[in-house]
Hints:
Elements: H1 2-24, H2 31-53, H3 57-85, H4 96-116, E1 120-128, E2 131-138, H5 142-166, H6 169-191, H7 200-233, E3 238-243, E4 248-251, H8 253-258, H9 273-282, E5 288-296, E6 299-311, E7 317-326, H10 328-342, H11 352-365, E8 371-378, H12 381-388, H13 390-406, E9 411-418, E10 421-427, H14 433-445, E11 458-464, H15 472-484, E12 494-496, H16 499-520, E13 524-533, E14 538-549, E15 553-555, H17 557-567, H18 570-590, E16 597-602, H19 606-609, H20 612-623, E17 630-635, H21 636-641, H22 643-656, E18 659-665, H23 672-677, E19 682-685, H24 687-693, H25 697-712, E20 717-720, H26 725-734, E21 738-740, E22 748-749, H27 750-757
Parallel strand pairs: 11-12, 14-16, 16-17, 17-18, 18-19, 19-20, 20-21
Antiparallel strand pairs: 1-2, 3-4, 3-7, 5-6, 6-7, 8-10, 8-11, 9-10, 13-14, 13-21, 13-22, 14-15
Amino acid sequence: MKIVLGAVLSVALIITGIYLWKTSRKNHRMAPSVSRILWAGFSMVFFYIFALMVEIEWLALLAYSAYYVSVAWLLFFLLYFSLEYTGNFLEDFVRKDFMMVLLVIDSLVLVWNFFSRKLFDIRWEQALGAESLYKPVLKELFYVHYTFMVLIAVIFLVGMICRFFKAPAFYRGKYLIIAIIFSGMMILNVRGFEDPIDFSIIGYVAEIICIYYCAFVYTPQRLLPKTLTEVTSNMSVGVLALDLEDRIIYNNRIVDGYLDIEKPLYDDNDTDLETWCREQARKKTGDWETEVTFWRGKEPVFFKIQMQRIMDNKRQLQGCYFIIQDRTEEIKELRKKQHLATHDRLTDLYIKEHFYEQAEKYIKSHPEEELYIICTDIKDFKMINDFFGSRVGDAVLQNYADKIREAEDKMIAYGRLGNDNFAVLMKKEDFKESYFDLNSKEAFAGSTFSEVSFQVIAYAGVYQIVERDLLVSVMCGRAKMALSTVKGDRTRKVAYYDNVLRDNILYEQELSKELEEAIAKEHLQMYLQPQTTADEKVIGAEALIRWNHPERGTLGPDVFIPIFERNGLITEVDKYMWEAACKQLRKWTDEGRREVYISVNISPKDFYFVDVYQTFVGLLDKYRIEPRQLKLEITESAVMRDFETQKELINKLRSLGFVVEMDDFGSAYSSLNMLKDIDVDVIKLDMGFLQQSVNSEKGKSILRMVVGLSKQLGIPVISEGVETREQLQFLQELGCEMFQGFYLGRPMDVQQFEIIYL
């Protein structure tokens, strides 16, 4: 029997040693603490076996002393484990350093017992049937040691029980197992306290094995699957696992949504997601990653899908799993950013750079096709934007962009180059002038708001692509050159680029560049054309301009004024002429010629780019002249652009004493409302109207009515363009009082005017 007990304990010793070796190889935060428990348990079993088997008294006494020391340290390491890794409330009350000091003292006392035999002694007696062994004989002092051990054991057990009630449900099992085994061990120890054989050692070994199992086996093996299931269930990506027979063995809640039969997902081949995954698994290829588009109805769903093979320890295929990431929002956001990077925010057409890029790709890839680049421009858009506000201006651009987009089947590429400039690439065979004219009319028909109403005109310049190596920006530049020749023209809306046009545009550009120098060096010269009464007495003159060019000679206004009207430089010319007229009036005033006036022109664009009122007030102050000496001529078309505003400005100028003349009356679509509503001092009849009406009885009747109506309204009439004696007599008969024209005097420089008339 003694041999059987020794064999059983030897097996326990071997098992403890194996667990000790395994623990020493683990890289785990609990390994040091568990290792200490195993070392103490191994020592305890070893010394107990030695004490049972040895037949030499002093060796048995030494073995029992070592056994009791090992038990003491085992209990302390169990308590240490409890306090360190279960985090129970006893940690605030149990001083581990103090307990260790007591334990060291206790251990020294047990060692001292070998010499003094004050705690226990041993005696040889029969215990296991006919066999005898050395049995400890306990003395009173031993119970002090025993009480200390019981205290440690109770603290440990209380800690386990408290942790059991406070821990999450999943962890309670391990704490309960540890507490039950430890309780059984204590019961065995108490009941067999006086027995020759301490069977509680089996309980100690069981507790040690339980600690190892709960620390390294129980929790990971049960927690890992639960944790993985919980993690994959709450992942933001789908997980779908298949076995070798393509059966679904696991999928998380994300995949549940993808496989919803009420909202099925199909790829471009009408294959649902589940079938698609099975087909991929059957190919048994290696691990891969791809991006694929599925459709939920008409809505695209963009997936990034990874497939991983599941292999066993022998590298045999067991199945596979798919990681399915929904990238729909990410790709939509990316496409939105790409769209914003290549499209104009206001009109949603291509921006300039992207239009150039797309047009260049097409031109190079279709060398056999005849292609046009068309650039369009909205007449006086800056004035629209400045005067009516950006809301109206933006609406005009959006309307025009919408009309372009409606015909995208005929256009290869189209975009907004900036401001009101648009560009289109299209085949020559698809181009029609009428489309661009009609397109602009339809677009701008909607540009009417409750507070404003205006007519908008778009012009187009066309460049046929011949030199395909040119940059698209240069091609657009040539189309714009053509466009610039028709801006302001009410009869032509489309122009084509050719070499003659190129030379003319370059000429216009050169003149525009030279204007600043011409103003600075006074190459622009004021000419005066006399205005007379019916008896041909000169009462004043209209200021006209000539350009004494150092290389091109004298240029008439018909050469450069239309150019500057188109590009906006007319305002610089006008300001130059206004100042020249005021300077001359100052000279005449100083010479005592206050009765002679000079009439100056105000161009339509001056009203938008110049503060007309403040400019003329400044000139009056600067040259100290009277307002009546400087007559202001404005065109009928300029007033009609913004009637109320211009009417207010005219009234302000007249209140200062300026004489305001309505120039070119009859050249546009004149309205009798003009005579009724506008407050002007003089009306100038247009020469073209006069020439067409002289030999027409109907025309004469209309002229008589207009002149008569003007006289009844108290508005004098001056007729310009009088070239013959017959015309003068006819106008005198009508009641006209003032005249201007070649018959009465041609435009001449100031010096000549002074010699002849002053």
